[in-house]
Amino acid sequence: MNKLIIVCLMGMIGLSSCNRKVGAIFTKTDKLEVVDPQFEYLSAKARFKFDHEEKNVSATANFRIKKDSIIWISISGFGFEGARVLIDTSNVRILDKLKKQYYEYTFEELSKEYDFDFNFQMIQSVVLGNLVEPYKKQRVEKRDTYYTYSASKGVYLFQNYIGAKSMKLEKVQVFDEGTKNTISVNYSDFILVDGQIFPYEILALIDYEAESKPNTEISISYNKMVIEDAPISFPYTVPSKYERK
């Protein structure tokens, strides 16, 4: 289960209710202004699906987030918690309750293993529907129903699609110029939560162009999201009998 959970999490590196807070992201000077949701603590429930070759997983995921600090995920199936994940700014920790095993990785280790520059901010951006690579005076173009702009970081090219009506990030494609692999993440069904806008549907597709492997598809469908008024806990304890892998 370890590799499966890690690939699910890493791969995710993908408007019906609006008010004036959505606003226009372009001012009179055509400056792109995408506002990230503001909160300190957030909790959410979602349906989680993963499809790759013969590995098909459908589960319930509970999220707890302390913005810019911690992402906690509990993954359950058939009423039983099968795994617990704790991500902070330095590490990813996974507790496999079914096999009584646990895993700990630094972002440097994960980046090396999966040939992608993973970090906490990137994962948080994908989960919340924020820009992975912020706008920094790149050239903005209007294409059909989107405003688009590109951003480069090392061997990675980010193509961002901002909805002309939603005025939110609706799609991001990350192209690895080294491996030629592509990750596409699509966001839809945006709603307001305490005046902040979040996507309720996230669909990610990993295209392994160079390796000629079957594509990987990951989806998160939120069914509840709450901005918490007070601090929340992030329980994660490794039992003494669990084996580290």
Architecture overview:
This protein is mostly beta strands. It has a single domain, classed as outer membrane lipoprotein receptor (LolB), chain A (Clam), CATH 2.50.20.10. Helices cover 11% and strands 48% of the residues. The chain contains three helices and 14 strands. Strands 7-8-9-10-11-12-13-1-2-3-4-5-6-14 form a 14-stranded mixed sheet. A hairpin with a 2-residue loop joins strand 8 and strand 9 (156-163). It is globular and about 55 Å long. The N and C termini lie close together (11 Å). The relative contact order is 0.22. The model is unreliable at 11-29 (pLDDT under 50).
Using brief descriptors, characterize the structure shown.
245 residues; mainly beta; outer membrane lipoprotein receptor (LolB), chain A; 14-stranded mixed sheet; 14 strands
Number of helices: 3
The radius of gyration over CA amounts to 18 Å
The general outline is globular
Q: How many domains comprise the coordinates?
A: 1
Could you tell me how far the N terminus lies from the C terminus, measured between alpha carbons in angstroms? 11 Å
Question: Can you tell me the CATH topology?
Answer: outer membrane lipoprotein receptor (LolB), chain A
CATH architecture: Clam
> Helix coverage percent of residues?
10-25%
**Element string (H = helix, E = strand):** HEEEEEEHHEEEEEEEE
Spans of at least 5 consecutive residues with low confidence: 11-29
The average pLDDT is 82
Offer a concise description of the structure.
The protein has 245 residues and is mainly beta. The protein is built from 3 helices and 14 strands.
